[in-house]
Specification:
The structure holds 2 protein chains of 2 kinds.
Chain A (H helix, E strand, L loop, with lengths): L8 E6 L4 H5 L8 H4 L1 H22 L1 H9 L19 E2 H5 L15 E4 L9 E4 L1 H17 L9 E4 L11 H12 L2 E3 L1 E2 L2 E2 L1 H9 L7 E5 L1 H14 L9 E4 L13 H12 L7 E5 L8 E2 L6 E2 L5 E5 L13 E6 L9 E15 L5 E10 L3 H14 L1
Chain B lengths: L3 E7 L2 E8 L7 E6 L10 H9 L2 E7 L16 H12 L5 E6 L1 H10 L5 E7 L5 H9 L3 H7 L6 E4 L2 E4 L1 H8 L5 H9 L5 E6 L7 H13 L4 E6 L10 H18 L12 H25 L1
The chains are: A alpha/beta, B alpha/beta.
């Protein structure tokens, strides 16, 4: 240590950074599995256990739920034990159940919602730290999985503006992206300003990469427009990133390979590597991005498990099941989510992109009978 | 926000400056010098935080840097950033100057020997360029240049292709060594505040303490604020950004004679709402211009 005696130097220390936020500010965090595969397990165990304790302490309904199942964080001694953490089904969020709210109820939160195209809307309370951590997951994934390191890459946004869709999560996410990156919005009152975006894209300097972000049907609409008028010639450094789903246009879903090929041709890419998908849902506080090899990488801080739909037992690596997420980043609701999505988790995969870690394959959405059972159980306990 | 825009002429180059005014009573002025690779536009949230606290903000796009000023980042030079900073300070004498990461080094050079600034606040401050470049790039470019070894004309720095002239320029202008930093600090006659993270892999906390100590021994007024467990990636994790920038705003308020404990700390949701409103406003204005045209 430097000797501070006899000099007019003042020194003070501020101690308000949570260790999880240090992790979310660590360079090359996705590379953790390359250096030490067990390090990811240790990291997940540490922060998930901490999250369980936080939610039990500040969420009486979740505490009762855990109590009824005889669960306590003292049981979490290895990564395999994480599968025993009581989950919340997405159905609970759709009912706006207070049981999903961690905190005094007086803490300031924003209520973010799903688009509700299936008839019901999930409402997720996010406090300030929870929201900031979500956008940390965006910034980290953008650099380490999408491979975009520069600060100033332009983002062309094809999602509805928040003034047209207040608090709808996908729009809110892009509004937040607008804080982090130079972003232009091209959807107004649910209409994509096709001529405007094409003109702006055509004006981008030849060697400058851009990101075009939007729901798959609008990306396809843009590709069709270009197919009819001639393709663009975007820099191969550019990326087309799909967020959200097909919503009311599910009848127009096309095969992923065909989708990628059409977009690549329309934007003038030599191959489909720049066409990327992402995964998030309003209840999940972390985004999963796809690398150039079309693998959706689970970040080191979350645990994704496929579950047997009947027993909710964790399936072995590569075996399909109902997907669940243990996300330690939210403080204002328990991030232990049983989703409506069916898929597989390939653990500790060495991806050609250079990341070694869990890769998630989403297969389809399932009906909610299984998760409804879980939701009803928690509602009874929370009453 | 974005209340006024000025374009300075430096030789044949242009330098675009944005001015943001607080809605209420004005307590002072802050000149924000962007970190490497970040345009003034991207400093919206920092400027918003400052204006909420009654501070008028000057932010600018340096030359040979992302943004609307002349040149592109391949030709970026730290000595030129010092000149640009000095030119903008001419517009706002008496300002508190805020440097971030690499720009901190240029700020120290720009302020050395001048008296028309109130204080300087340096976040994640690069005080040993050779060390930082080595940690960021994985190779010691300064050593390679000094040894006369061959190295590529272009080098990737934080995702940007940067001409090797950047390293040569920094060596020629004495911007590389900690001793150079101390020499500049000894010529900075106003209060100096370093805000550094204890877990910053690119800026060694102990190096910051050392240069601060030497400047203090030379009679300068220096304060070091260590943010425990904070890394360098303040633009990757908004929680870290909040810790650094709220601390910086307190220092700016203190420097301007205001009570730092009366800081206004917006939530991230407020920042998103402000940025979105600004974005929509600009889009509406663009549409209106198209319509009028």
């Amino acid at each position: 240590m430097t000797d501070l005696h006899e000099i007019s130097l003042q020194e003070s220390v501020i101690e308000d950074i949570d260790p999880l936020d240090t992790i979310l500010g660590t360079d090359e965090i996705y590379q953790l599995g390359n250096k030490d595969a067990d390090a990811i397990d240790a990291l997940r165990l540490r922060f998930t256990r901490q999250a369980v304790d936080h939610h039990r302490q500040h969420n009486p309904a979740y505490d009762r739920y855990c109590e009824s199942l005889g669960f306590g964080s003292h049981r979490l001694s290895s990564a395999a034990d994480l599968a025993t953490i009581p989950l919340l089904s997405t159905g609970l969020f759709k009912r706006g159940d207070q049981a999903i709210r961690t905190g005094s109820g007086q803490d300031e939160v924003i209520l973010t919602t799903s688009s509700g195209t299936l008839g019901t809307v999930s409402v997720v309370p996010r406090d300030d730290v929870t929201l900031k951590r979500f956008f940390a997951s965006v910034a980290i994934g953008k650099r380490e999985v999408l491979g975009v390191e520069t600060f100033d890459r332009q983002v062309f946004d094809l999602t509805p503006a928040t003034r047209d869709a207040p608090n709808v999560w996908v729009s809110y996410v892009m509004a937040g992206v607008g804080v982090l990156y130079t972003t232009r919005s091209y959807v107004r009152r649910d209409v994509l300003a096709m001529k405007e975006i094409v003109a702006d894209l055509a004006a981008v300097p030849e060697n400058e990469g851009v990101n075009i972000v939007g729901p798959p049907p609008l990306l396809l609409d843009l590709a069709k427009y270009l197919e009819a008028r001639g393709p663009l010639r975007l820099s191969p450094k550019s990326l087309i990133i799909a967020i959200g789903g097909w919503k009311r246009r599910e009848n127009e879903i096309i095969d992923r390979t065909v989708f990628d090929e059409r977009l690549a041709a329309a934007f003038g890419f030599p191959d489909t590597a720049p066409i990327r998908d992402s995964y998030n849902m309003v209840e999940l506080n972390t985004v999963l991005f796809e690398c150039a090899f079309k693998a959706k990488h689970s970040p080191p801080w979350i645990t994704v498990l496929a579950r047997d739909p009947r027993t909710l037992a964790a399936m072995p690596s590569g075996q399909p099941g109902l997907l669940s997420f243990l996300d330690p980043t939210p403080l204002s609701y328990p991030g232990f989510i049983l989703s409506d999505d069916f898929g597989t988790v390939v653990q500790r995969k060495q991806c050609p992109c250079g990341i070694t870690g869990d890769v998630v394959v989403f297969e389809r959405r399932v009906n909610r009978i299984e998760s409804r059972g879980c939701a009803l159980k928690l509602q009874t306990i929370g009453a | 926000m974005n209340d006024e825009e000025l374009t300075l002429t430096l030789g044949t180059d242009k330098l675009v400056v944005t001015i943001d005014r607080p809605a209420g009573e004005e307590r002072g002025t802050v000149l924000i010098v962007p970190p490497f690779g970040m345009s003034a536009e991207r400093l919206f949230s920092t400027a918003y935080l400052m204006t909420l606290n009654g501070l008028r903000v000057y932010r600018f796009d340096p030359r040979n840097h992302p943004g609307r000023s002349t040149g592109s980042i391949e030709a970026f030079r730290l000595s030129e950033l010092a000149i640009d900073t000095a030119a903008v300070l001419d517009l706002c004498p008496g300002a508190v100057v805020l440097g971030i990461s690499l720009s901190s080094r240029a700020v120290m050079r720009a302020l050395a020997g001048r008296d028309d600034w109130r204080a300087v606040v340096l976040i994640t401050p690069v005080v040993d360029l050779q060390y930082t470049l080595r940690e960021v790039m994985g190779v010691d470019l300064v050593r390679i240049v000094r040894s006369g070894e061959e190295f590529p004309d272009r080098n990737l720095v934080l995702g940007y292709e940067v001409d090797k002239v950047f390293v040569n320029d920094s060596i020629e202008h004495d911007l590389v060594e900690p001793a150079d930093t101390v020499a500049d600090l000894l010529r900075c006659r106003r209060p100096i505040v370093f805000i550094a993270g204890t877990d910053d892999p690119w800026v060694n906390m102990e190096d910051v303490r050392k240069v601060a100590s030497q400047a203090a021994r030379g009679g300068r007024s220096v304060e070091v604020i260590a943010i425990q467990a904070a890394t360098h990636q303040l633009y990757r994790n908004p929680v870290l950004a909040t810790a650094y920038f709220n601390c910086a705003v307190r220092q700016c308020l203190r420097a301007t004679g205001a009570d730092p404990d009366k800081i206004v700390e917006p939530s991230f949701a407020q920042i998103i709402a402000a940025a979105e409103a600004q974005r929509m406003d600009l889009a509406d204005r663009a549409n209106l211009e198209m319509y009028d045209g």
